[in-house]
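Researcher: Please translate sequence to structure tokens.
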Amino acid sequence: MIETVRQSLQAASADADLAAQVSSGRLTDAPTSSGAGWGGVVGGPGSPGRRPTGDGSAATQVDGDGDHSDDDDDRRRRLRARLEAAERDEEAASSASEEATAVLDESAVRRSGLLRDREDLARRLEELDADIADADREWARRQREADRAQRASDAAHEDVERLRSALED
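Model: Translation complete:
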């Protein structure tokens, strides 16, 4: 779209009739070069207000004094200023697009790294869960051993007490 506007404004700067159409708001289509002037626009070759020239292009008919050069120069200056502004806007938009794409790429790289980190952490969590399960089994086994040892100690203590009692009697 910006490129079409730029081309239209450039064409208008080279064609007084086209410039008049642009400045008056009568340009309805993007101009196309047919090799014999600009066509494909309202007021193109063969349109009312235009007369053919010897080289196949068309010239604007003038009324009265026949001098439109000051108006044409003003229109061209305005069109050139608009073209320059549109080109600056296009350059700024292109720069902003490149910057946004770079930021997007950085975000994608960061996201990819975070996903890898999450996968690594998930694997580590599975390993830790397995280690905890092993530790739970080991603790339960040791708890059973400790319970057996406590029962054996209680039984031995009872034997000692019974034997002491028997010796005292």
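Researcher: Any highlights?
Model: The helical segments are 2-14, 16-24, 69-168.
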